Amino acid sequence: MKKLLFGIIAYWLVIACSEKKSEVVFDKSEAVAMGMEGTSAEEAKTTSDSPPPPLPSTPQAQKKIIHTATLRFKVNDLKKAEIALKTQIQAIGGYIANANQNRQSGNLENNWTVRVPATKFDTFIGNVEKESIYTDSKNIAAEDVTAEYVDNDLRIKAKQKVFERYLELLKQAKNVQDIMAVEEQIRIIREEIESKEGRQKYLNDQVDFSTVTLNFYQETDVSSAPEQPFYVRIWHNFTDGWASFFNMIIGLFYLIPYILLIFVIIYLLRKWWKKRQP
From the CB of residue 151, how many other CB atoms can be counted at a distance below 10 Å? Predict the structure, then answer.
């Protein structure tokens, strides 16, 4: 049991020391843990006193580039442009993630967030520009996330080695206290692995499918709502007239106290005036 506890303490001493050093591609504490696999708790102490093993060489990583674009442009016919763009998006295996339409400054506008395969990114941008009769703005960006992706991948592999080592230590635990201590570290490492794996999935999604924001509009003569039928306008005017009449009646009730006050003042003034007459 003492050997088991000593092994755990030695491992975390390695982590504390490595945190004070500059970062490498992944934590040196994890590299040490990789070298600890298959050793006993006593050997772990010797390993912690020696320099960490050299980092494994990795092949040239495939480039991970996130492409994004934002375009605002004018079209002749908004409905026709919608149909054409939807056809193009479906043809290349993309999809519309978000869409909304509004009237603003005399224009009828569509705002779309489109996800398209990265391999079809340039083709889609070119097809979009064919629908435009005037381009207000066009912004294209490319973000290289290769370094982050490789770093996360190495960290995941290192933490998996640590995870396996703790599973071995768990088998050696003899009492409840030791089991709980090891299980807590297993939980922490598992959460770290899941967090890194989640980030990798997000990066893969952003790399595989580019995000294109489209804002296309059609100029209109009238930006208000469509004109209502004649009988509907007559009914609305009739109801509005009655509403105005009732509002006027209600307003007169607000004036009653002032009217009464005026009559009282006139009555008092007339009474006073009569008393002054000879």
Answer: 16
pTM listed for this prediction: 0.57
31 vs 237, residue with greater confidence: 237
Residues 175 and 162: their CA atoms lie apart, in Å, by: 22
Which of 10, 74, 68 minimizes the C-alpha distance to 42? Answer: 10
Structural domain spans, the chain = 2-60+146-169+176-182, 64-145+170-175+183-226, 232-278
Residues 136, 142, 144, CA angle at the centre, nearest 5°?
A: 165
Q: Which of 115-124, 220-229, 236-245, 250-259 has the highest mean pLDDT?
A: 115-124
Indicate the Cα dihedral angle 150, 155, 158, 162, nearest 10°: -160
For residues 39 and 143, give the distance between their C-alpha atoms in angstroms, rounded to a whole number.
43
Percent helix, percent strand, percent coil in the chain, to nearest 5? 60, 20, 20
Q: Helix crossing, 28-36 with 146-172: angle to 10°? A: 40
What's the N-to-C CA distance of the chain in angstroms? 126
